[in-house]
Amino acid sequence: MRTAAIFCLMTMLAAALRGQDADTMILRNDDQKFTILSQIEDPAEAAAFLTIVKTTEPARRYERAQSFLKTYPRSWLLAQAYDAAARSAIDLSQYNEALAAGRASLRLLPENPSLLILLANVEAQKGLAAMAMADASDALEYLDEIERPPNMSQKEWNAIKPQLKASAYFARARGEASKLGTDDAQNALKDLNKAAAWNNNDAETFYLRAIVELRLNKKDEGAADLAFVFNISSALHDKAERILLLLAKPGPLDAFLAGLQARTIDSSLRREPESPLYPGVLAAGYAGPDACRSCHAPEYTAWQKTGMARMLRPYRPENVFGDFSSGSEFEGGLIRMGTAGRPYFEVSNAGRWQRFYVDFTIGAKWQQGYVTRLPDGRLQVLPIEYNAMEKKWINYWKMIDPPGSPRADIADFTKLTAATNYQQNCAICHTSQLKLDSAKASPMEHATFFQPGIDCEMCHGPSAWHARSAAKGKLEHANPVEPPFDFRTAGNREGVQVCAQCHRQSTVREMGEGGEMNYSTKGKFLPATWMRPLDAFSRNAFYKDGRFRETTFIVEAFTRSACYRRGTAQCASCHSPHLDHFESNQTSLKYQNNPNEMCLPCHAQYRDKIAEHSHHAATSEASQCVACHMPKVMNALLFKARSHEIEVPTADLTERFGQQDSPNVCLTCHSEKDALWAKEQLASWRQ
Predict the structure, then answer these.
(1) pLDDT of 281 above 90
(2) Average pLDDT for the chain
(3) Does residue 248 lie within any of the structural domains?
(4) Residue that is last in its domain, among 434, 452, 484
(5) Is the pTM of this model over 0.90?
(6) Counting Cβ atoms within 10 Å, is residue 474 exposed (0-12), middle (13-18) or buried (19+)?
(7) Number of H helices and number of E strands within the chain?
(8) How far is CA 532 from CA 27, 107, 536, 540, in A?
(9) Which terminus of the chain, N or C, has less C-beta within 10 A?
(10) Which H/E stretch holds residue 628?
């Protein structure tokens, strides 16, 4: 098996650091933090896992991984232990065991490109072409999205990533080459050319490319690749020689080799795909939402009522729904509220009360936070928020952050540190066209924004050029991703990327040359972003079965779904911020009164068989597709929101971890039953 070029990227978990906070901005080159090992309370469990990481001999590592899985079947480290078992099994040529362990690991943590590549090569070797191609394609997509792993330097990642990409293209080509069609061979050759560009010294790549080239009657190219393999590879030398002798007939091999052209490597294939450039659009800049009103009045009016438009608003009495009545207090009087011309908070500071007035409101649906403006222009988020559903004040940061979070400590608020600064922690997703103020000593804390809230141009791109063109009657718009971005015709990857700006917690951002924080002035209107490896986050964000627990990871959840990965679904398939009844439809659902229509256009085979498929009455809530496939298991603002992983219900992990750590949708209604009952029930439906 081909493992030399696949580096073991198991997360190095020896350091005990706290996890990345949820609901906060992540910048490129920030120190990456991770927490899995530090959250293992049993020292013996942590020590047992470390023995796996430190063991280099495959047979012993496989044995120790299997022992760990048996001894600690409910560990947070199962994905990593299964990963180690899979890699060790490949080294031992135990391919069935490798596939089983690898699938178990990916079920818990799918975003693992190096493991996907290894499995894709195993699958290709075993003739599982479709699986190999799917896993290799997923790996390539993750490699383009994921930032360097925790505890790996950028230099190390820059050296490893090209080899991983080459191996992924090779694995996909193996799957394609195993098919018999000419188109399959052409596709295999394209991927092998890319593999060669990313790693020009891999003998296996050039040997397979030679076989495909000969199959496509490209004798000269195939012979050149075989000559390279013949000269550098001891493992493939004899195979290459036998084919070269056949190609050389009736002449001698030496003369044939001497007359061959050099092998070809198209280095341009190694370049990352270039973003489409619209210099005129970006140079014209941003016009603000009022520029859209004249031509798009219904959409503008509907947008104004949405939570996005009202995400941050200057104080107005009618916008406040928190209880600031005299005598209101929180945590035994650590904070007290009142009004004196406008609402205020008083925070105890060493026995003295310090008053902070509400200058802005954050949010307008289920929960509301409050911001005070300091004399130097900094905006500080007051430490507690008001939940409208429960009608009470809460310390939201304390609920979502790992223990020891500085921003969750109310007693520290009067220090007015960066931990509670709005521009640094919140504004990148709650305001539009945010820019560093480089004239200030702390430029991020003094960042300025063009619009409060999320405006039209955050989703559709800069509009000044479009508005001027429309005024002249010129509305050419051939490319849906050119501003104004058209969700109706753009691909699902591009559509989700727009929403992921704010709804993907793991987004890693890089500032623009002019200090642009959440917009661009060159290239695509969307700034380049990456995805921080999920091992870097607190386990509070996950269930033990690997599913996401917090809605701040809603895009990460959705991009795991087959609807996204294998289909065409995007956020705009089901949601729209331009509906005219937002007050009664605060999740902006297109099909609020008939939610099955979100699924049936692609799954039309169930349209007339709802009850047969769901095993519940057709008119019942349990026969709504979302009831079973998008259960309400994600933590939102003191309520449960629907998971967006769009899963097929199972109960085996609930049986392992329990309902609390692996909620099964059947048991949320049938609470008197247990996981074994749910497992048997689901199995009987699939017979």
Answers:
(1) no
(2) 91
(3) yes
(4) 434
(5) yes
(6) exposed
(7) 28, 17
(8) 10, 19, 7, 16
(9) C
(10) helix 625-629
